[in-house]
Amino acid sequence: MTEASFTRKFFVVLVAIIFFLPLWWLAASSFRPSDSIFRYLSPIGVYTFWPDEWTLKNVVGIWDSPFRLAIWNSIIVSMITVVVGLALCSMAAFALAVLEFPFRNAVFVVMVISFLIPFDAIAVPLYSIMRMFGLQDSYTGLILPGIGNGLAVFLLRQFFLGIPKEIREAAIVDGMGWFRIYYSIYLPLSVPAMVSAALILYIFQWQAYLWPLLIAPGAEYKVAAVAIAQFSTGYRTDYGLIFAAALFIAVIPMAILTILQRYYSASIAATGSKE
Amino acid sequence: MTSSKSRYFVVLAFLGPALLSVFLLRLWPAALALINSFREPGGAYGLGNYTYIFTDPEFLNSLKITAIYSVIVNPLQIAIALALALLMNAGMRTIGFWRTIVLLPVAIPQSVSAVVWGVALRPDGLVNSILNTMGLESQRFLTSPDQSLASIMLIVSWIGVGYWMTFLVAGLQEIPKSLYEAVKIDGANGWQQFRYITLPQLRRPLTFVLVANTVANFLVFAPVQILTQGGPTGSTNLIMNEVYSQAFVLSDPSSAAASTVILVAVALLVVTIQFRLMSAGEDRT
């Protein structure tokens, strides 16, 4: 690609800075004393975006606040979702890409379309079902909706379809069972697709708001995304603490996304935006 | 090949958990909502819940707000995403980094973004002080019925456009350079290149983004519930917030079920189109 002009580069950087500004302000506000967050807002000056007095009080304060438990819950729930979800989605994708059985394509279509029913749309009726099973206020209740993901199945199936048939035919001749073929041939060959699928599963669960709000109303299983909203509307809000917690909850997925950007873009490209 | 009986066992072992979760976590609740939507509060079955919600001013208002919102926010976000994609498809060593920055907001939980923007949009918040510095008057944003919906649009667009941009950048990079070279020889200017090469070549990713974005915007909930609860005076009462308040604020599960069915039906329609677009691409590879 030809090198862009200086003007264009300038605009690229300018646009990125505009998008980053709210996040920067969030970060700056997290490291200044609570009572000075609004002091330097007007007029805009250096200290609007740069703490005049640095403090770790807010960040450290998370440890002694209800956010500690909420962030911990979010981490547990997301991690289990990724592990169980990867197993479930990759096994389904393997069946749909490799195994031969009648109505395979019909099963695939039904499965992907059902998974694509936006989860939030059926959250309210699902809530009454889960309550019937006593899954209110439990990790199981929080995790279950996140483990089956149509996009992850779709992505992995696409990738599995690209693995040459000859490889598994040779394995069958060698007497390998299907599970061995899945586990020791397909999975190792599909690391990039698995990373993309893991990202999809993780971001879904870390972002979840409506579902945890319904299924885990108690304090014990509150997740970070819900906790931040509830504490920010409380009476006597400590904005320093809120901002520090917001920063913490935002930084984890931002760091993961920045490191794994390449896999994330790959998942986007594979979703069918390509000709 | 093994016997057909054990082959089905293998298929079931691999596919079973996923099928079970599709059934339990998607189809069952959808079916339950459908059944409950026909069960009237007295216990009889009929269309009562539907006739009720379609005469309920709150629900009708939420349909209207959702329609206004969708008609404005979807074209707006796609136009911005396209402009961003064109800009960010630049020959620059660090371009990946700048694109990641624009994409970052989508990774953050929407509730976090809502809380931060809620503070920024306060009457004494960051956005007003930027406006003042630029010599403009302070605005009421979320507290004004005239500006609240636009404020929600601003927040969800900041969250989402970088994500949609990424699809379009992928699409731009698929366009063969030779097409541009051919029309350049014919003396096409920048606009003509965009109009006759870029746009038609981007048709697929653009359609995909349009459909996927429409579904996403249909389900916006966290910013509304956290920042306005549908107000002031119903001006931001998008459909998801209406379903939530029917079910949990008004404790009216019958109306909530009927509204859910309407919501799922429309979402399913859009999703089916989306799926066809996805598998159309697959056939060609």
Give an overview of the whole structure.
The complex is a heterodimer of chains A (275) and B (285). Chain A has helices at 6-30, 57-61, 67-97, 104-116, 123-132, 139-147, 150-161, 165-173, 178-189, 191-207, 210-215, 224-232, 239-259, 261-273. Chain A is mainly α and 275 residues long. Chain A has 2 domains: 1-55, no CATH class; 58-273, MetI-like fold (Orthogonal Bundle), CATH 1.10.3720.10. In chain A, helix 1 packs across helix 13 and helix 3 (67-97) packs across helix 7. Chain A is globular and about 75 Å long. The two termini of chain A are 20 Å apart. With 285 residues, chain B is an all-alpha fold. Chain B has 13 helices and no strands. Chain B starts with a helix and ends with a helix. The mean pLDDT of chain B is 88. The interface between A and B is large, with 98 and 103 residues.
Outline of the structure:
The complex is a heterodimer of chains A (275) and B (285). With 275 residues, chain A is mostly helical.
Keywords:
A: 275 residues; MetI-like fold; 2 domains; 0% strand; B: mainly alpha; globular
Major β-sheet annotation of chain A: none
- Remind me, CATH topology of chain B? MetI-like fold
Distance between the termini of chain A: 20 Å
Provide mean pLDDT of chain A, rounded. Answer: 88
How much of the sequence lies in strands of chain A comes to under 5%
CATH superfamily descriptor of the largest domain in chain A = MetI-like
- As residue ranges, the low-confidence spans of chain A are none
Could you give me the name of the CATH homologous superfamily of chain B?
MetI-like
The class by helix and strand makeup of chain A works out as: mainly alpha
* Structural classification of chain B: mainly alpha
Order of helices and strands of chain B: HHHHHHHHHHHHH
Number of helices of chain B: 13
What CATH architecture label of the largest domain in chain A applies? Orthogonal Bundle
